[in-house]
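User: Please fill in residues for this 93-position structure.
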């Protein structure tokens, strides 16, 4: 007895990315390839803006608040490269 369920699609393993692209173009059309572009660009715009604002804010705090405290208490001056590295890494988290 064959227990195949016709509601479950059979898995297909295409041989290459080109085969997948060809299948999508044939079954769904070329517009499908670009259907998520606008939402993705809007997402990138906002996330980039948030990351830039976080980096700049952290850079200002490190430069104007933390660096003078460290210099006064320990006698160590933070070089701009360290402040830039930490603010870039912290702003990107």
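Assistant: Residues filled in for all 93 positions:
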């Amino acid at each position: 007895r064959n227990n195949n369920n016709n509601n479950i699609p059979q898995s297909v393993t295409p041989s290459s990315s080109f085969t997948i692209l060809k299948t999508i173009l044939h079954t769904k059309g070329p517009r499908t390839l670009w259907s998520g572009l606008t939402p993705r660009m809007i997402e990138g715009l906002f996330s980039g803006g948030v990351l830039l604002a976080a980096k700049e804010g952290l850079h200002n705090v490190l430069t104007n608040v933390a660096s003078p405290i460290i210099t006064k208490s320990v006698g160590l001056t933070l070089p701009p490269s360290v402040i830039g590295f930490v603010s870039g890494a912290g702003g990107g988290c």
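For context: The helical segments are 17-27, 37-74, 80-91.
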